[in-house]
Write a structure and sequence with these properties.
single chain, 137 residues, alpha/beta, Nucleotidyltransferase, domain 5, 5-stranded mixed sheet, 5 strands, globular, nuclease activity, YqgF, hydrolase activity, acting on ester bonds
């Protein structure tokens, strides 16, 4: 079975998570510089079979768009054009960063590791978005 990949878009860094081949578990994969996203995806799709791309859809608490919402909308269009064989899904990402931080604390991550520039928080947030998608599916 093909995998599902999730993207937590950020202005500087983007978190990536992926399912196992049975689409049961979401795992943090990578945090990359946002401007390298398409290169990363092209390379990843050459190695792994992926059927769906899940995008974290950012909104304010009341559901209205926030400053990142237009960027995600633009990314969705670019992904559809670049990867027409992939299904693109949007999923609410409110509270994922807070949940990711709580998860990392619960797992015993040191404060330094949570703030690490490699973006542990970003890829854990992407995994939470992906797990939420899997649960809804």
């Amino acid at each position: 079975m093909a995998r599902v990949i999730a993207i937590d878009l950020g202005s500087k860094r983007t978190g990536i998570a992926v399912t196992d081949s049975l689409q049961m578990l979401a795992n943090p994969l990578e945090t990359i510089e946002t401007h390298k996203l398409f290169d990363f995806l092209k390379s990843y799709f050459e190695k792994e079979e992926v059927e769906t791309i899940v995008l974290g859809y950012p909104t304010k608490l009341d559901g209205r768009p926030n400053e990142m919402t237009p960027r995600v909308n633009t990314l969705q269009g670019k992904l559809k054009k670049a990867f027409p064989d992939k299904k693109i899904e949007l999923i609410d990402e409110r509270f994922t960063s807070k949940m990711a931080m709580q998860t990392m604390i619960a797992m015993g991550s040191k404060k330094k590791d949570r703030r690490e520039k490699s973006g542990n928080l970003d890829k854990v947030s992407a995994a939470i978005i992906l797990q939420s998608y899997l649960e809804k599916k």
